[in-house]
Amino acid sequence: MGKRKSRKLKPTTKKKIKLETTFDCPFCNHKDSVECELDNKEKKYRYGTASCWVCEEGYSTRINGLS
């Protein structure tokens, strides 16, 4: 008699969490007026920018990977 084949569990993949790209502005308090952009093209200089299209305030900083 042979052994019974056990069922192998398929490896589960983690779902990527999508982050929001529009936020409320902390300066002028307009809803969904701040847009965020991440520039990942160059590995040496990766920047993220957030800018409000109502009051024209902006902020940019270097980003790092959370891998």
From TrEMBL:
<comment type="function">
    <text>Transcription elongation factor implicated in the maintenance of proper chromatin structure in actively transcribed regions.</text>
</comment>
<keyword id="KW-0539">Nucleus</keyword>
<keyword id="KW-0862">Zinc</keyword>
<keyword id="KW-0863">Zinc-finger</keyword>
<keyword id="KW-0479">Metal-binding</keyword>
<comment type="similarity">
    <text>Belongs to the ELOF1 family.</text>
</comment>
<dbReference type="InterPro" id="IPR038567">
    <property type="entry name" value="T_Elf1_sf"/>
</dbReference>
<dbReference type="GO" id="GO:0006368">
    <property type="term" value="P:transcription elongation by RNA polymerase II"/>
</dbReference>
<dbReference type="GO" id="GO:0008270">
    <property type="term" value="F:zinc ion binding"/>
</dbReference>
<keyword id="KW-0251">Elongation factor</keyword>
<dbReference type="GO" id="GO:0000993">
    <property type="term" value="F:RNA polymerase II complex binding"/>
</dbReference>
<dbReference type="InterPro" id="IPR007808">
    <property type="entry name" value="Elf1"/>
</dbReference>
<keyword id="KW-0804">Transcription</keyword>
<keyword id="KW-0805">Transcription regulation</keyword>
<dbReference type="Pfam" id="PF05129">
    <property type="entry name" value="Zn_ribbon_Elf1"/>
</dbReference>
<protein>
    <recommendedName>
        <fullName>Transcription elongation factor 1 homolog</fullName>
    </recommendedName>
</protein>
<dbReference type="GO" id="GO:0008023">
    <property type="term" value="C:transcription elongation factor complex"/>
</dbReference>
<keyword id="KW-0648">Protein biosynthesis</keyword>
<dbReference type="GO" id="GO:0003746">
    <property type="term" value="F:translation elongation factor activity"/>
</dbReference>
